[in-house]
Amino acid sequence: MEKVLIIAEAGVNHNGDLELAKQLVDAAAEAKADYVKFQTFKADKIVSKNAQKADYQIKNINDNDNSQYAMLKKLEMPDDWHYQLLEYAQSKNIKFLSTGFDQESIDFLDKLGVDLYKIPSGEITNKRYLQHIARKNKEIIISTGMATLDEIKQAVNIIAEAGTPKEKISVLHCNTEYPTPMKDVNLKAMNRIGKELGVTIGYSDHTLGIEVPIAAVALGAKIIEKHFTIDRNLPGPDHLASLEPAELKQMVTSIRNIEQAISGNGSKEPSESEKKNIAIVRKSLHFNKNLDAGHVLREEDLIAIRPGTGVSPLSIDDFIGKKLNTAVTANTPVFENYFL
């Protein structure tokens, strides 16, 4: 079975501090995620100076400044950080990834050598952006928060027509409320996306805890993305809806366990590990009392008890009315050679 791709989303949880960004790389590597992902953007390229924060951002930051521009300006990752974090991630045996939010950032990430592109939910209706990424002809993962199925189909078609074949496109079901209420997860939509579009599916999670991404894997997700932080008490828009390092590690471990649990061929048969228990746990027919040779067996002469080393109790009717060719004692297993 192909492993689920696990993306540990550091995002902007570095808070503009390179050392904190490196700690996030450490935590993702320690958890054994496949990628640690940041965000690449220039605030001037993605937001008006008049744009307001989302409600969750206002609540989480609580700094009396509702400017989305001012918030993002503080969270830009300088170009040189990318090179340092890429090298640092390689030294920790984890892949570096970043979401580019504008065409200039996509070109920079291309120069950096990232092996895939992650399209954030907010850009799914940005046609020129989608076309620009598609022309790079690399693997693409699309998040779909706030999107309708028709919008997702349109985005996939735009990308395919612009140069990236559908086989290289994966789609993540997502909800962009931070944190996402459980009643709004609608996890079944993930499989609907896969059925309707014929693409690899996954799930980008913003719920609290680790239950939903684990459930998504059980339902067929091939990619999981989850925000994490060093400390949920840190200031910033995404920390409160992020996992802390121990939780991230538990999520990865749980996903790997679920992978194994659903990797069977679907046929119902004893596993290799349990075959040794058949004789111990199952019962077989035994004589219930001392009986003489020539005795004609009746039902009350038999009992089904452990161990299961003898004749199966399923065959009890085959022995009633048969005549013993030898004397037997109570608790002796029943075998065919005891009968005439």
Brief synopsis:
The protein has 340 residues and is an alpha/beta fold.
Model description:
There is one protein chain. The chain is α/β, with parallel strands linked by helices. The chain folds into two domains: 5-261, Aldolase class I (TIM Barrel), CATH 3.20.20.70; 275-338, Type Iii Antifreeze Protein Isoform Hplc 12 (Alpha-Beta Complex). It has 13 helices and ten strands. The longest helix is centred in the last third of the chain and has 17 residues, at 245-261. It starts with a strand and ends in a 21-residue tail after the last helix. This is N-acetylneuraminate synthase. GO terms for molecular function: N-acylneuraminate-9-phosphate synthase activity. Pfam families: NeuB, SAF. Residues 284-340 form the AFP-like domain. One of its GO terms (biological process) is carbohydrate biosynthetic process.
What labels would you give this structure?
8-stranded parallel sheet, alpha/beta, Type Iii Antifreeze Protein Isoform Hplc 12, 2 domains, 340 residues, 36% helix, TIM Barrel
